Amino acid sequence: MTRVSTAGSYSAVLANIQRAQVRQQQAGEQVSSQVVATDYKGYARTAETLTAMRGVQVKVNGLIDQNKALGAKLEMQATGLSQVSDAAKGARESIATAVAAENGDTLMLELQNYFASAVSGLNTKYAGNYLFSGGKVDTQPVAATRLSDLTAAPATADLFSNDTFKANSRLDENTSMQTGMLASEVATPLFDQLKAIQAYVDTNGPFTGRLTEAQSDFLKSTLNGFDTAYNGLTSTEAANGVMQKRADEAQTALSDRADMLEGMTGDITDVDLAEAVSKLEQVQLSMQAAAQVFSSLRSSSLLDILK
To answer: Among candidates 118, 86, 280, 101, which has minimal Cα distance to 188?
Structure first.
């Protein structure tokens, strides 16, 4: 005689419903999050690979952030250098104009303005730090404000407060370059020329009205020095431009690498949405079938038959 066990049937159906509920929850989470799993346990054998790839991603993204900051810093450095270079060019043009016009009435005022502009460029700051101070980032590299400060100092070098440290910046895991520049190296030739003119005025008196032959000859003799100072500043600007280009190229390479890593990680973590939706629908059908079986068992109880 075959024995009928209602309790055993209920247990089997309930186990199927519970398994279907777990699968439904997993499928639902995949559809809503669009990733295979929310923790490493869900990736099984690929978890170690995924962990390594995400570690590389963190490193690459960190380098990208560093390069963004470096690019902004070099841009500010370029602005400061351009200001000093323009001052040298403007001072040279003012002297040439005074000589050509044989009049020096406004020359010293113009040179004072160009000197102030050069000092402002050398005192350029980025993120609260002075760019041309070397390691003394919280110290203004040039405190002088007037042309008379040039001759008051024992030597041109005494006008600068920077040290000799030049910052190095990292472009990627294997490449770094020296990006720091010092106010003393950038501006000494220009300051020497301006100091020579101020010393002449201190000794021989100001340029007023029509220039004397001696004054004109002296001013003409300074033009080559200003040309040399300007050319040196132009070369420094070009060097900064080369650094900017290298930083941009490194940034592009890192961004491409980050995109590649994102794609490789996505191949592991991203779920096929169409497949996930189909799986969810299948699980829901399985749940419905199990529920129908459970309902049928309720109406086919042995107790009902005995009644």
So the answer is: 118
Residue 65, CA atoms < 13 Å, CB-side half-sphere: 6
Reduced to 3 states (helix: H, G, I; strand: E, B; else coil), residue 136 is coil
pTM of the full predicted structure? Answer: 0.73
Residue type, 9: S
User: Residues in the chain, how many?
Assistant: 307
- How many other C-beta atoms can be found within 10 angstroms of the C-beta atom of residue 210? 12
Neighbour count for residue 65 (Cβ, 10 Å): 11
- Residues 6+ away with beta carbon under 8 Å from 23: 279, 283, 286
Cα 203 from Cα 197, distance rounded (Å): 10
Question: Do 265 and 56 form a contact (C-beta atoms < 8 A)?
Answer: no
Q: Does the pLDDT of residue 236 top 80, yes or no? A: yes
Q: Which contiguous run of DSSP H or E holds residue 216?
A: helix 213-269
CB 248 within 8 Å of CB 72: no
Q: What is the pLDDT of residues 252-285, one digit of tens each?
A: 888 888 877 777 666 565 554 556 556 655 666 6
Distances from the Cα of 210 to the Cα of 92, 109, 127, 238, angstroms: 19, 16, 48, 39
Distance between CA atoms of residues 297 and 307, nearest Å: 16
Q: In the numeric block, which tokens belong to residue 134? A: 């070397």
pLDDT in tens, 122-140: 999 999 999 999 999 999 9
Per the CB < 8 A criterion, the answer to whether 245 and 238 are in contact is: no
Answer yes or no: is pLDDT of 62 > 90: no
3-state secondary structure of 138: coil
CB 286 within 8 A of CB 19: no
pLDDT digits (tens, 9 = 90+) for 162-219: 999 999 998 888 888 999 999 999 999 999 999 999 999 999 999 989 999 999 999 9
Handedness of CA 119, 112, 145, 187 (dihedral sign): positive
User: Residue with structure tokens 């280009």?
Assistant: 245
